[in-house]
Amino acid sequence: MSETLRPAPNRWRVLALWLAAITMVATAGVLLAPSHPTPDASHGAEPVELGVELHAPVVAARAVPNLAGLPEASTFGTVPTAPLDETAAEVPDGQLVHPTKPVPVFDQPGGAAIAVLPTTQLGSDTWVPVIADEPGWVQVLLPSRPNGSTGWLSTQDNTLTIRSTTNWIVIDRAAFRLTLYRDHQQIGTWSVGVGTTAAPTPTGRTFVLASMTDATQKFSPVIFPLGIHSATYTTYGGGPGTTGIHGWPTTDVFGRPSSDGCIRIPADALATLTNPADPVPIGTPVLIR
């Protein structure tokens, strides 16, 4: 797998401003050049390095007095006005954020509040991948419907904890393969079962939403719900139709379409993902293609 699957967040606008400023300074230097010769280092003059330091303005977040009036950006929620992910074929760069208290989600920096992001999801702390940033803001993937929902979080009030992971997962539906990467190295690749034609595994970039056990089922000791949903089922087994990664007790399901949308993985793959010495962290980016 090419390392080009891990692009950094988009900073083109800041870069463009920086380049424009450099051009302006260079032009001004030509117009205001003195008529006497430029000092020469050989005659004891120190060369002067001109530094240009730019700080893009921080757009303040709007006050949101009533978070309870907003839809919840959780696997159980729907955020109909959420901006959709526009670069769903790229793996996020591994920066993750966790809200230390419920925080508003905005449609753009300084824009309208469209949802509230809770501190936990399905028993695990909420960690969501950053896909873009601007001064004072990060754009993140959301675990709510519709698939591909994103939103902007303010970093200006110290309500977000930030960390990074070098793990990411790629699921190739056509090849029936799940591959785990860490530090740009392939850790393992396994034949898996994916959704059938009637209930296909959804595509796009998402993330490991939680790690959970469920005593009512016997097919997997650990289940990893993802931040993406079935397009076929609005509800499944009493839940919201969340797509997940989980084990399976028999091997006949691997290497073919065999599920209702979830990714069924063999026991050694599940053991690697749950390895106590180095488990795949919550928030790990996942690309399904």
UniProtKB/TrEMBL annotation:
Keyword Cytoplasm on entry = no
**SUPFAM superfamilies reported for this sequence:** L,D-transpeptidase catalytic domain-like
Catalytic residues, chain numbering: 246, 262
**Ranges that cross the membrane:** 12-33
* Involved pathway(s): Cell wall biogenesis; peptidoglycan biosynthesis
Q: Which CDD domains match?
A: YkuD_like
Keywords linked to the UniProt accession: Cell shape, Cell wall biogenesis/degradation, Membrane, Peptidoglycan synthesis, Transferase, Transmembrane, Transmembrane helix
Tell me where in this chain the L,D-TPase catalytic domain is found: 167-289
- Under which name does UniProt file this protein? L,D-TPase catalytic domain-containing protein
Lineage per the UniProt record: Bacteria, Bacillati, Actinomycetota, Actinomycetes, Pseudonocardiales
